[in-house]
Amino acid sequence: MILEHGPSETKDLSVAKANIDKYGYCLIPEALNADEVKICRERLLEQAEAEEELGLSFRDGGAKQEIRFKGGKVDKSSFTKENGGVNQRLWMMANKGQCFRDMVTHSLVDELVGHILGKDFILSTHSANIAKPGGVRMGLHTDQWWMPQPIKAGENYIRPSEISRKADTSFIEPDISLGISPPVVANCMWMISDFSSTNGATEVVAGSHLSGAHPNQEDQSAYPIVQPEAEAGTLMVFDGRLWHGTGANTGNTDRLGVLTTFCSPQFRQQENQTLGLDRDLWDSCSEKLKSRLGFKVWNAYGRIESSMDHLIDIEPERIKELKPNKK
Ligand SMILES: O=C(O)CCC(=O)C(=O)O
Predict the structure, then answer these.
(1) Cβ atoms of 129 and 259 closer than 8 Å
(2) Whose CA is nearest to atom 4 of ligand 1?
(3) In terms of DSSP bridges, do strands 87-90 and 122-131 run parallel, antiparallel, or are they unpaired?
(4) Nearest to 25 by CA among 42, 1, 49, 9
């Protein structure tokens, strides 16, 4: 199931869909034109600099970075430059520029994410990852590491809330005679700079989405990792089961990537897009964007009151504890 080589770039969407099915990902050149890349690049760099200046920047991927704990919880200060963090991550990108909101509703997303997840899907995470010189490999993982594995009827199972990022043996060496889980996540990497194996292009294992397995977090040395190299403006769409992770940046330039990660509407979003949306943007958001952010009611899920509501409001009416006047 695991393949040595991945697919070539294509603008033919039927070929791209076949590539997603076979390899777990596809590459679309010029998904963003030169002007769009320029706008995204300027907005991203400006935002990143401001977040750094204001002490809001989140840094990971440092060779000497130690994850510290305080009161049994990961200490946020672990993800700082001072603590050795290198790659700069930015979150909730829908709040940070029209060029990023446009990615969420892009027609290629409709087609290619729709191919994986069906017509309804929501934005799980919208982040940027600036892989900087000195950043180390993130390590292969899937974007649906939390998805329960198939089991035999009546057999013991890992309680869903106890599944962890550190894959259990039954995830690393699954019994695939039981079948495998379908994709419920689809990810899009928007390349805002050229991606190369030197500057930390995303590592992938072609075909791993069909293996039913999750990558071993302890030792990944035997996996046939490839790093698709492509020009700025390219879009990589991948199945949530694909083994992937940021590559090491051994060069001297920043690798700029923006990720729009989607999930099907019955799953929880990684970022709370509805609560987190900048209230000032509401009036300018299209119905399509609101739906993708999670304001659309799906089969009664995500509603506030009536399951017949189509979209929930940014400031929904909350029916509080009431008493009839007659009493
Ligand atoms: O930055 C990349 O190339 C991939 C990032 C990634 O896999 C993640 O953030 O989970």
Answers:
(1) yes
(2) 246
(3) antiparallel
(4) 9
Find where tokens 């009416």 sit.
Answer: 317
Domain residue limits, the chain: 13-62+77-295
Looking at ligand 1, which atom is closest to the CA of residue 131?
Answer: 1
Q: DSSP character for 304?
A: S
The best mutation among 124, 129, 143, 261 to test binding of ligand 1, ranked by most ligand atoms within 8 Å of the C-beta, falls on 129
Q: Which is the closest atom of ligand 1 to the Cα of 125?
A: 9
Give, rounded to a whole angstrom, the gap between the first and last alpha carbons of the chain: 69
**Residue ranges of the chain whose pLDDT lies below 50:** none
Ligand 1: distance of its center to the CA of 84 in Å?
19
* Ligand 1 and 244: CB distance under 6 A: yes
pLDDT at res. 327: 66
CATH code that applies to domain 13-62+77-295: 2.60.120.620
- Return the residue whose CA atom lies nearest to atom 1 of ligand 1: 246
The confidence score (pLDDT) of residue 93 equals 98
